[in-house]
Amino acid sequence: MNCEGQLLMTQAPPVRPNPGLFKRNPPIAGEAEAIEAAKNGDAEAFSKLYTLHKRRVYTLCLRMLGNVSEAEDMTQEAFLHLFRKLSSFRGESAFSTWLHRLTVNLVLMHLRKKGLNLVSLEETINPSEEDAPKRDFGSRDSVLAGSVDRVALERAVASLPPGYRMVFVLHDVEGFEHNEIATMLDCSTGNSKSQLHKARLKLRELLRQSSQPPQPAASTEATQ
Amino acid sequence: MTEPGDINSINFDTLKPEEFENYLPYLFASGNGKVSQNPRLQKFLAGNPDCAALVSDLETIAETARSLFEPTGDAVNDPSDQVWNNIQTKLREESVLASAPEDDEEEIEEDEVKEIN
User: Is the alpha carbon torsion for A193, A199, A200, A202 positive or negative?
Assistant: First the structure.
């Protein structure tokens, strides 16, 4: 251990939260008090934390797993884990960032237990050619014209291949950095960047398809 | 040939549109992810409307994705009540187990019943 490390350990400087970390996850009114009370075993305070965060945690699980039953199981696990680990939360990041990271790790552990070991996770990250976005440089205007319907995007995300969906949700929705995602998924940062790009290309393709008017069903009748 | 990750040495004056996509993941990952505002790219994007359209669409997708972080108020975004019931049951079981003397399970159950009543 170097001298600097020893100094840090013996002097224990006060924790200074990075203000940048709270831009996306600003503290919620009453949350800090509930955290402190829940650390001391206050059941009501823990219930409050559940009420404040259940929707986000469940939505995160649902997006990562794409299955209501599994998402509920993992939400349950995440909050049980939270209860056991709450004393280790020191406020260095926003509470929801910390809780979401804990949730993501649990979901990834669950997926690995299901048979997605590190090698197969890499395979999932690289879907088949059929699922891969098409390279489509041609004479084409902007498909989305500067706006995307939230519901349409949510639906398109749900239909992404699992590997693309995972990286897209972690980076673009949850706001994790590529290096964090690389650590979580045990892949390189270059791989994370490349998969995110492919996910966005695939979403563009899916959104284009969903915005096209349905083909007239009467075309065969007309020829008869 | 420049490595895809080495975006600082790209010559955008000679870059072909089909090569552009190889660099896009890295261009998005650098800076604030706003590729359309990158000063080095303005001339290239102005001369390649297909590339500009692609960049615009991918930025729109990324921006809208951020809004998904906060779920809507729809009840469909909530876990069922059973989840909280299960959490409470598990935590109750754990705290009972932690404080329970060994070989005294029947007594614990009785105490629990009394508490509930």
Answer: positive
ipTM: 0.74
Write the CATH number for A76.
1.10.1740.10
CA distances from A6 to A2, A13, A15, A16 (A): 7, 12, 17, 19
Is residue A3, in this structure, part of any structural domain at all? no
Query: Average pLDDT of each block of 10 consecutive residues along chain A (224 residues)?
Result: 35 40 64 92 93 94 93 97 93 90 95 64 54 56 75 93 91 93 90 92 90 60 44
Contacts of B61 in chain A (CB under 8 A): 144, 148, 153, 172, 200, 203-204, 207
Domain match, A26 and A62 both: yes
Kindly state whether residue A10 falls inside one of the protein's structural domains. Answer: no
Which chain A residue has the Cα nearest residue B68? A173
Q: Which residue has the tokens 């190889």?
A: B22
Residue A157 lies in a domain: yes
Same domain? For A92 and A160 the reply is no
DSSP category for residue A141: -
Count of domains forming chain A: 2
The 10s digit of each residue's pLDDT in A143-159 is: 677 788 899 999 999 99
The answer to whether position A85 is within a domain reads yes
Per the structure, the complete domain to which residue A41 belongs is given by 19-114
pLDDT in tens, B8-33: 788 888 889 888 988 999 899 886 77
Which residue in B has a C-alpha nearest to residue A197's C-alpha?
A: B25
| Nearest-CA distance A70 → chain B (Å) | 11
Helix (H, G, I), strand (E, B) or coil at B16: coil
How far, in Å, CA of A28 to CA of A96, rounded?
Answer: 9
- Looking at the fold, whether A121 and A208 belong to one and the same domain comes out as yes
DSSP B70-96: S--S-GGGSPPHHHHHHHHHHHHHHHH
Ranges of each domain in chain B: 7-67, 79-116
pTM for this entry: 0.76
